[in-house]
Amino acid sequence: MRSPRRVLVIGGSSEIAGAIAAELVGDGARELVLAGRDAAALSRTGEELRAKGAERVETVMLDAARTFGHREALRGAFETLGEVDVAILAVGVLGARGGLPEDIPAAVEVLRVNTVGAGSLLMETVRLLREQGSGTLVVLSSVAAERARASNAVYCASKAGLDALAEALDDELRGEGVRVMVVRPGFVRTRMTAGLPEAPFATSAQVVARETVRGLRRRAHTVWAPAGLRWVMLAMRLLPRGLFRRIPA
Question: What is the pTM of this model?
């Protein structure tokens, strides 16, 4: 895959998305649009990307939870860039850990943002990429999508829904010049996970970014970060449910 020059970052205040964008700038990206709801955070990320060599960074206001505004905001972002080589979808909230939540409305909000909101953004972006006849959408999923655990039931379910949609749309778009690449990081040290006990194979946003760009170069359909998680999760999927339940949270 040729180095992308025009990049759209949906969820532009995300630390992982910012790290991926910075890695792409180092790989030749020059024009970027950052979409999100935190104007100050988008501005800071934009300044960091310009310092790394980006020639042009624009921002678009977008709220993942307000699905009725997605089409117009994304259309504007595409028009700003003229054409999008790579779009990065990095939208999500963690929510409370545990199984059946005490605060069910808060848990529903996690599903609304991570599955409904992110799913809407995924479909609208793919539609625009299909219209232009080319481009790759990078979807930030999680190893949590692979097999739901009682210790984080709602978040796992929310990511599993988005992950499945991304994979299915990638299958549909094969042969049309458009790709959807799913990135499944493990525990990543970011503001969102600050204060939580680290899981095995904990990593950084920079490692996720490097693995993502490597995946783009080799036209992968799925990227694991760190890469060794691929085999860990394969073993997890094959475990009988009775044994899986006994694994400490």
Answer: 0.91
